[in-house]
TrEMBL record, chains A, B:
It comes from Streptomyces ochraceiscleroticus. It comes from the Bacteria. Signal peptide: none annotated. This is ROK family protein. Belongs to the ROK (NagC/XylR) family.
């Protein structure tokens, strides 16, 4: 572990559907340790039990840091779902079954630290804006493509949250009217074609497989490169759907760049080459944005949570960055 | 005409495809005169000639106001197309054939007044935010439905412009993949179904009419209410397409309200009743926004231009409202 500066560190947590990621973060956003992964095992567990796991994990991590001599100044937490950042409440989480969990208060009571609660995708966008591929850009979209497809709309380094903390749900724009039913209740969302589970499910369906391999989208992508025609078709449809969604995002937000992250965002040229080509073909009057891979990978949420925590400390001295 | 206050007035101009609208605007955004319409007659005329008409009209209006004893402090101009508000340049206008016309400089040279150049839809959004249906709302969409469909994304009273002054092109989100070719070059844009000319064209096509009546969308709407089945079908498809576009806007911007203006925005319950009902059906996890008629009608662009002009005067004393 790097030595924290005299200003100490904050603990950044990224609470995702399968794991909590954590890192100690310096004031400049540098991770003072490799990002650690802690499984959550949400499936089949009561929402309250998962809250308990999060609280336990946060307290353990703070204790461990303090035991190593780190002055932990605050806790920054980024979570999936609908997050009311003002109230510090996890309004809704499909992964955990959460409804109106006052996570900020619960974590502050448990750890005795100042806590800031953010949204995983928006926090990732903040990290990419200040430390990653979005540096120096006034308007960009951060689009993680993993289990689902999300977007943070970044304006001057700050995420646009909308009127009810739900802006940027790019995964649930309808690109195939009347298409497959999405988990959100709509039909034809881009998430029914372009997210990791969607790619796996579509491959299995077209290949006539009941369960069994491939277990993840990366395998489907690999099969596509090896000449598997079904995999190639599924991947092409995923990229086409993602292109349509990005075209919508470009038409409405007019970003200078689209920064693609998440698990499938690490597919390299297999994703970025057709995505750039097809997006350029699809756009007419719009300005073609740069389409770039995210720079921070899995760490974006953690580092962004840490930055939000530092901002919240800064706010107390008037030096923080407000969010819109 | 109402008497201008001791602070004088600004002249607000809204340069549209068929007419220039003008009004003298008080510091509080009140129109000191009824909004006047001056035809442009763009069809078949050279881009430079139309610029000449705009300059002549602006100079005449300033002269007339001064002759009436009004102290004209500045000129606020809202124009259609792509407007670079920082540079004061009309980057592109399909209606006028304009490319990179330095309208702010030309108008300032001609009138000797400070000039601010804005975008017609964004200026209308500013007016609705401060004077109309958007008052007190943090995040709303102003959606004029007229010749085309546009949107101003309003955040805290200010329009979101995007990275290249092209944000909010709601008329050109694709809602019918592979559908009719749009003037913008894409296929299946909402403007191919829901704008005024689209409604008329589709009615004529389905009714087998070559030219001839109906001449405008309002007539088609009226025919629909009178039991004309083709008109009812065309109008239903227009409302459905508009619903799909608004659903996309809600999914990405999460507004608390959608304020619908423009010519077709004056269709009353014939528009708002099905639009609200269908949008509520279409949305699932999103928060249903209020769907409201615009309050300022045709005047929004003019009044917004006037407000921008007052802001620009305020900026010189540090009191203005910055735009994002």
């Amino acid at each position: 572990m790097s030595r924290p500066s005299g200003e100490g560190a904050v603990l950044g947590l990224d609470i995702g559907g399968t794991a909590i990621k954590s890192a100690l973060v310096a004031p400049d956003g540098r991770a003072l340790s490799a990002v650690a992964h802690h499984p959550v095992q949400a499936a089949g567990r009561a929402p309250e039990a998962i809250v308990g796991t999060v609280l336990d994990r946060a307290a353990d991590l703070v204790d461990a840091a303090v035991a190593q001599g780190v002055a932990v100044r605050a806790l920054g937490v980024a979570a999936c779902g609908v997050i009311d950042e003002s109230a510090g409440v996890a309004v809704f989480s499909a992964s955990f079954g959460w409804r109106d969990v006052p996570l900020r208060r619960l974590l502050a009571e448990r750890t005795g630290l100042p806590v800031v609660l953010g949204h995983d995708v928006r926090a990732g966008g903040v990290a990419e804006a200040r430390l990653g591929a979005g540096r120096g850009r006034e308007v960009f979209l951060f689009v993680p493509v993993g289990t689902g497809v999300g977007a943070a709309v970044m304006l001057g380094g700050r995420p646009f949250t909308g009127g009810h903390w739900r802006a940027g749900e790019l995964g649930h724009v309808v690109v195939r009217p009347g298409g497959d039913r999405c988990g959100c209740g709509q039909r034809g969302c881009v998430s029914t074609l372009a997210g990791g589970p969607a790619v796996v499910k579509r491959y299995r369906r077209l290949a006539g497989l009941d369960g069994g391999a491939p277990a993840d989208a990366a395998t489907v992508v690999r099969l596509a490169t090896e000449g598997d025609r079904i995999a190639a078709k599924v991947w092409a449809e995923a990229v086409e759907a993602l292109t349509d969604a990005l075209a919508l995002g470009v038409t409405l937000f007019d970003p200078s760049a689209v920064i693609v992250g998440g698990g499938l965002g690490r597919s390299g040229d297999l994703l970025f080459h057709p995505l750039r080509e097809q997006l350029a073909e699809r756009l007419t009057f719009q300005v073609m944005p740069e389409v770039l891979p995210a720079a921070l990978g899995d760490e974006a949420g953690c580092l962004g949570a840490g930055l939000l925590a530092w901002d919240s400390l800064g706010d107390r001295t008037g030096a923080g960055t407000p969010t819109i």
